[in-house]
Amino acid sequence: MDFLAGYYVWIKALHIISVIFWMAGMAYLPRLFVYHAESAPGSDKSETFKIMERRLLRGIINPAMIATFVFGIAMLALNPGLIWDVWMQAKLVLIVVMSGLHGMFSRWRKQFERDENSRDARFYRIVNEAPPVLVIFIVLLAVAKPF
């Protein structure tokens, strides 16, 4: 365990890098949905958005989320006492919410892929605000440890 403890800082850095990529994708994907909702199904524009959304989700967002979880779990394994801190428990709840949002984005992407989107651009503009709000609270909990 002492051997791994020396790598904690590196694991933490990789965790932060993963979070940055995950959140960048989570901020960009609903913006693509806004533009996609404004384009006619089956149009060249719509087909281009389908490719962009699929590549963003599969190539960046999903791998970054997995890496975020792997490095986060590794940090908890190296410092298991953190799990009992109230700030960490609150952070984990918000991460579960973010993961649920990620799942919703995945489902909506599939609906766009099948030309079955039923929501307008305004809906996606509102949803686009959720990841930044969540990440603000997650970072504040992780840095300030208010409880």
Please tell me about this protein's structure.
By secondary structure, the chain is mostly helical. Helix content is 81%, strand content 0%. The protein is built from 6 helices and no strands. It has helices at 2-5, 8-37, 44-78, 86-113, 121-127, 130-144. Helix 2 runs parallel beside helix 4 and helix 3 (44-78) runs antiparallel to helix 4.
- Tell me the overall shape: elongated
Number of DSSP E strands: 0
| Poorly predicted runs | none
Q: Whole-number average pLDDT?
A: 95
Q: What is the helix fraction of residues, given as a range? A: over 70%
Radius of gyration: 18 Å
Please state roughly what percent of the residues sit in beta strands, choosing from under 5%, 5-15%, 15-25%, 25-35%, 35-45% or over 45%. Answer: under 5%
